[in-house]
Write a structure and sequence with these properties.
The chain is 40% helix and 24% strand. The strands form 3 sheets. Strands 1, 2, 3, 4, 5, 6, 7 and 16 form an 8-stranded antiparallel sheet that branches. Strand 8 and strand 9 form a beta hairpin.
Length: 406
């Protein structure tokens, strides 16, 4: 199984000349990608890579792009057109300054933290990377550096480094059901006979702390009405609380997901997660609930658990959570004390979160028996819109196995 991880790193140029050449390259990359999109948009089919190459390669080469730049531009334009037409959207307008580079178009000096990239007219520029200690492990182990992406936004340069390695899936001996909630993460582990092995409720206060900053931000906006848009100090204050809320959620998700995977590794467990794809469409409409839902990072939490588990060779699967908090995991019927507490048929009083995670584990066990644990690796559904993992300080942001690359 091939696993890919992408890390986000901040970069700076050593002088104004390199900075200018980088911006010229990124603008040309975007503009010529847009040109190809415009040219093929009215066609009655999405052209193949070969068609695009025959039509645009020489033109791009004459504009100063290297051979691999041309391939990336053609491929990116095709991806944009194909995805937009599939979603029945209008002609896309590219605004972001980003460029994908193959290994032939960059040189990375990990020791000195310097990245040299090829730009227009076969010139090379230097970028100094803001290094993070965790990156070193990717250069010492079996990870291989693949494609990189260079991006410029809000006056800052970001580099996304993609690492890849082969991971041998482990044969699971237990099943771990995980129930993700607003204020806790609950897991239950059962063995291959369905017998209870372990369970725990891990508190999650990240949403509560992030919600505090969101409320402060909204109060500032309400206090100043429309004026906040035009006063720099007020805008910065709102952004500050927005960043804090985002960083709190990101750090909390990393901490909890790391702990979950460590426990799964200890028990050699296959991880079973909920398929919550339609949660937002079923939202109650309550203002308080929807405010929490907007911040709730269950997709990010699931994505972090998923990629950390894959790196360790642990199996991951997704099951339909319907009825998991209402059915008894030991047979017979539950007695509902209130919205949170239930009584099992054997007289034990527990929470619906425990019941849900227990039933998820049993569903995963049934699935493992049906198809075999080695066939259970699934990729998480791509998050919608801004729900995509957006990590802080360059932490790994994406992972995939060979079944699907996101």
């Amino acid at each position: 199984m091939r696993v890919k991880v992408t890390a986000k790193v901040k970069a700076v140029t050593p002088n104004l000349s390199h900075h200018t050449k980088l911006l010229q390259f990124l603008r040309a990359y975007r503009n010529w990608t847009q040109y190809i999109v415009d040219q093929v948009w009215e066609l009655d089919h999405v052209p193949s890579i070969r068609e695009l190459h025959q039509r645009f390669y020489r033109m791009l080469r004459n504009r100063g792009f290297r051979a691999h730049h041309c391939h990336k531009i053609e491929r990116r334009a095709r991806e944009v057109v194909k995805a937009t037409k599939k979603n029945k959207g209008t002609k896309p307008i590219l605004r972001k300054l980003t460029a994908r580079l193959d290994y032939q178009d960059y040189r990375l000096d990990a020791k000195n933290k310097i990245l040299i990239i090829a730009v227009l007219n076969n010139e090379w520029i230097e970028l100094k990377l803001v290094w993070y200690n965790y990156l070193s492990r990717y250069f010492k182990g079996k990870w291989k550096l693949k494609e990189i992406l260079v991006s410029y936004r809000e006056g800052m340069i970001w580099v996304y480094l993609t690492f890849e390695k082969e991971v041998k899936p482990k044969k699971s001996t237990t099943i771990m059901g995980i129930d993700i909630n607003f204020n806790n993460i609950t897991y239950t582990i059962v063995d291959k006979d369905g017998k209870l092995v372990s369970m725990e409720v891990i508190p999650f206060d990240g949403l509560k702390r992030a919600l505090t900053h969101r409320i402060i931000s909204e109060k500032i906006q309400k206090k100043y009405g429309k004026k906040w848009r035009f006063v720099r100090g007020i805008r910065e204050s709102i952004r500050k609380h927005g960043r804090r809320a985002r960083n709190i959620l990101t750090d909390s998700c990393h901490f909890i997901s790391r702990k979950i995977v460590e426990i799964a590794k200890e028990y050699n467990a296959m991880i079973v997660l909920e398929d919550l794809n339609r949660l937002r469409s079923k939202a109650s409409g309550s203002k308080k609930f929807n405010k929490k839902l907007a911040l709730w990072t269950y997709r990010r939490m699931q994505a972090y658990i998923h990629y950390k588990a894959l790196i360790e060779g642990l199996m991951v699967t997704y099951v339909n959570p319907k009825g998991t908090s209402k059915a008894s995991p030991i047979g017979d019927r539950l007695v509902f004390i209130n919205y949170r507490w239930v009584k099992l048929p054997n007289g034990v009083i527990t929470t619906r979160d425990i019941v849900a995670s227990w039933n998820l584990a049993l569903k995963g066990l049934k699935l493992a028996r049906d198809v075999g644990s080695r066939g259970l690796v699934e990729t998480p559904n791509t998050p919608d819109g801004d729900e995509a993992p957006n990590p802080m300080k360059g932490k790994p942001v994406q992972v995939s196995n060979t079944l699907k690359i996101t």
